[in-house]
Amino acid sequence: MIKTIPVINNKGGVGKTTTTTNVAAGLVRRGKKVLVVDLDSQGSASLAMGVHRQDLLPSSAEVLFGKVNIEDAIRTTDVRNLDLLTGSLHLANADTRLSKADHHQHRLQQALSRVKDDYDVILIDCAPSTSLLSVNALVAADAFIIPVAPSYLSLEGVISLGKVVKNVRLNLGEAAPVLGVLLTMVRRNDKQTRSIIREVRSHYGGKVFDTEIRDHPAIEDAPVSGSSVFEVAPNSAGAEDYGALVDEVLERLKRYGTIFRAVRNATNARSSHTDELTAAERLAL
Ligand SMILES: Nc1ncnc2c1ncn2[C@@H]1O[C@H](COP(=O)(O)OP(=O)(O)OP(=O)(O)O)[C@@H](O)[C@H]1O
Ligand SMILES: [Mg+2]
Q1: Ligand 1 pocket check for 182: Cβ under 6 Å
Q2: Rounded CA gap, 14 and 200, in Å?
């Protein structure tokens, strides 16, 4: 099953946190039990989900450093079936601390394996960097979502992320595929935006979600009240777009489940199912 899904792009400000929190809320509204893991030292996803800055501990950092069991660090939220492992400033020196630890690339995967059975989906909000934290997220991943704001600079983030993914595959033999590239903060009437979107769609083809998240003030405002766009502005274009994305995510989870399993098997043991493999490789970044 595809369960653990980092929302990742090396470029900052492309809508990773916004997508993590709103997709999590949308999945819960579709009856799923969801865990959000905040892997950003800024704790933005945790704050957006209503946690106060002074209440971020214990966080994912303490879990990764082996100081606290993940079961004791995960907290419930005001939303039923939506749990959270917070981020905190303690993640800021994670690279230095983790690099000296055993299994430093597998810390998150090992921790999540203890709670994976309790959830339908685990979304991970990543920081905009190619740190060991991102490697941990990629190693733990069953598939990942890459938000892209349609500007040339954010495309560069995707290209450098592609290199990290390749390295993880080469060095660790892990092979999580792309669940989807997501166009965010889209200004539909902007000519340059349209041209970049055409480029992204022609380059990444079927990997790009059909749904585009429009630039909408309700999406920007929702975190201020610690809620999702569905609660703050249920009839807005923002809720409409994230709702459509959640449907597409659920559809892809179902449709690609078998293929994704084949990607892993193929990379780990060179599967003999060549048809599946070809389809699977088409989905890889
Ligand atoms: N569709 C949207 N419409 C309007 N504003 C948006 C939209 N998506 C995100 N934003 C706003 O853009 C800013 C950046 O978004 P967000 O924090 O989700 O990006 P990020 O990729 O997580 O950033 P970072 O790399 O710093 O973690 C935020 O202020 C957010 O509220
Ligand atoms: Mg963020």
Answers
A1: no
A2: 15
Alpha helices in the chain (DSSP H): 16-29, 44-48, 60-64, 70-73, 94-99, 107-113, 132-140, 152-172, 191-204, 217-221, 229-232, 237-269, 274-283
Ligand 2: distance of its center to the CA of 44 in Å?
A: 6
Residues lying with their CB under 5 A of ligand 2, a single-atom ion:
16-17, 44
Q: Domain range spanning residue 168?
A: 4-283
- Number of domain units in the chain: 1
Q: Tell how far the Cα of 15 is from the centroid of ligand 1, in angstroms.
A: 4
Token code pair at residue 52: 């106060």
Q: 17 CB less than 6 Å from ligand 1?
A: yes
Give the pLDDT of the chain (285 residues) as one tens digit per residue.
889 999 998 888 999 999 999 999 999 999 999 999 999 999 999 999 999 999 999 999 999 999 999 999 999 999 999 999 999 999 998 989 998 888 999 999 999 999 999 999 999 999 998 789 999 998 999 998 999 998 766 677 677 777 777 777 776 666 678 899 999 999 999 998 998 898 888 888 888 999 999 999 999 999 999 999 999 999 999 999 999 999 999 999 998 777 666 666 666 554 444 444 444 444 444
Among 220, 224, 232, name the best residue to mutate to test ligand 1's pocket (greatest count of ligand atoms within 8 A of Cβ): 220
CATH number at residue 162: 3.40.50.300
CB of 16 shorter than 6 A to ligand 1: yes
